[in-house]
Design a protein that fits this description.
Blueprint lengths: L1 H15 L2 H27 L5 E7 L14 E5 L4 H10 L4 E5 L11 E4 L5 H22 L4 H7 L7 E4 L5 E4 L1 H35 L2 H5 L5 H37 L28 H13 L2 H29 L7 H21 L6 H8 L4 H8 L6 H29 L9 H9 L1
Parallel strand pairs: 1-2, 1-3
Antiparallel strand pairs: 3-4, 5-6
Length: 437
């Protein structure tokens, strides 16, 4: 056991001191925080500038229908289109909206001229305004009051409530659960492959450099394999926890600087989140902000984070043992491809089927794939945000631990023989012989 701890310590210290680890430890949180912060800043700072738009309406249907906005000024003119085009070129107008007289009774065509790329929101506004006006005219022509249609439109507020066995009620948000489940499963998938591949590469490097011959003169092959697997597992766990802390810190500092309230109690009576003069973030009313906090409170973060750590470690340990066996059986990374496919198929299968499991997280397919150790790390993370019975969770965790012990025993039999084999590409028949030694 002491030798395993020594190898674990060596693997851990060696890898956390690498520049690549340090760079990714700080770069990862910056990128993840940027994914949340940058879109907000870009959306609020985006300014297309004031636009003077000339409108030539030969139908007279849309005169006065384009409302003046802060940065959009519509000017209804009665000049020739050619002269207005020249004014657009000269910069007197930024755009020209030309609505020709239709051959039939309903104008459904329009042309927008500009010497620059037309902003998407401007073209969308023009189309929406014209569409609403045409629909209104059609309804009036049919003897239907548009206000009646407008008043008949109703927004349904559907609240989903989950009832537990004790009769307790908690609100659930399906869209958020789907996003959390898929995000967690994808992270585990990539983490298992990233850190599992590090185990395999490390063993191949030590084997090709012949340093392993010196190492196993003082430690057993099994102790060497376990030390490397556990050491890299701690490296991955350390990096993941640092990512959580640093990402949360960066995002929290950003929210603090721009005056975002930390809870519903921080909302002002006026109904805005912050003073417009002190922030670049858009104003949100109390209802929208309270909705956000309601969604956040509905997420069981301790269970999700705890389950993620367990299934990350369990899945990694299970697959890392197999990766270690592959690394010990070959002399270079190019020879690993024939063995990687059978090992990676269960993980890939779990990730692909996760897209279907989110629609039925309590079905029999979801249950069995979350129980089988080779797919449970990915599939169970999809199910956990929806709520998994504790009995199923315990069975899944117990089987995952058993699966790790089995793959470790399986890999150790290949590892102890393959680690000293050189110059020969092993086949599956050869591996089977090693297992029976």
């Amino acid at each position: 056991m002491n030798k395993i701890l020594l190898i674990l310590k060596r693997e851990y210290i060696t890898r956390v001191r690498k520049k690549s680890f340090i760079i990714m430890t700080f770069l990862g949180p910056l990128l993840m925080a940027a994914l949340m912060i940058v879109p907000v800043i870009l959306a609020t700072l985006q300014n297309i500038g004031d636009k003077n738009i000339a409108v030539v309406d030969e139908t007279n249907w849309f005169i006065g229908k384009f409302e003046q906005a802060d940065n959009l000024q519509f000017h209804y003119v009665f000049e020739s289109v050619d002269s207005l085009k020249q004014k657009v070129i000269d910069g007197q107008y930024d755009m020209l909206v030309y609505i020709p007289r239709p051959e039939l009774n309903i104008p459904v065509n329009a042309e927008v001229y500009s010497n620059r790329q037309i902003p998407l929101n401007v073209s969308s506004y023009i189309k929406t305004t014209m569409s609403k006006e045409v629909e209104t005219k059609k309804l009036l022509a049919s003897g239907i009051d548009p206000e009646v249609i407008k008043s008949a439109k109703t927004s349904i507020n559907l609240v989903t409530i989950r009832i537990d066995e004790d009769g307790g009620e908690t609100k659930s948000f399906t869209e958020i659960n789907v996003a959390l489940g898929l995000f967690g499963s994808i992270l585990i998938y990539f983490f298992i492959f990233i850190f599992g591949s590090q185990v395999m590469r490390g063993i191949i490097e030590e084997k090709t450099s012949r340093i392993v011959e010196v190492i196993i003169s003082s430690v057993r092959p099994f102790e060497l394999m376990m030390g490397k697997i556990l050491g890299i597992a701690l490296v991955g766990l350390t990096q993941f926890l640092l990512w959580i802390v640093l990402t949360g810190s960066i995002y929290g500092v950003f929210m603090l600087i721009y005056g975002v309230p930390e809870g519903p109690q921080a909302l002002s009576a006026g109904g805005s989140m912050m003073n417009q003069a002190n922030t670049v973030l858009p104003e949100m009313d109390n209802t929208a902000v309270l909705k956000v906090f309601e969604v956040v409170e509905a997420i069981n973060f301790p269970v999700i984070i705890g389950s993620f750590i367990f299934y990350f470690l369990g899945g990694y340990l299970l697959y890392a043992a197999l990766f270690a066996a592959i690394g010990s059986a070959v002399d270079n990374e190019a020879d690993t491809q024939q063995f990687m496919l059978p090992v990676s198929i269960p993980l890939i299968l779990g990730l692909v089927i996760s897209n279907f499991i989110v629609n039925n997280p309590e079905g029999s397919l979801a249950f069995w794939l979350s129980i089988i150790p080779f797919t449970s790390p990915v599939v169970m993370m999809v199910r956990i945000p929806f709520g998994v019975p504790y009995g199923e969770l315990v069975i899944s965790m117990a089987l995952l631990i058993s699966g790790f012990l089995f793959t470790t025993w399986f890999a150790a039999k290949i590892y102890r023989t393959g680690i000293l084999m050189y110059g020969k590409k092993p086949s599956y028949r050869e591996l089977w012989k090693w297992l029976k030694y």
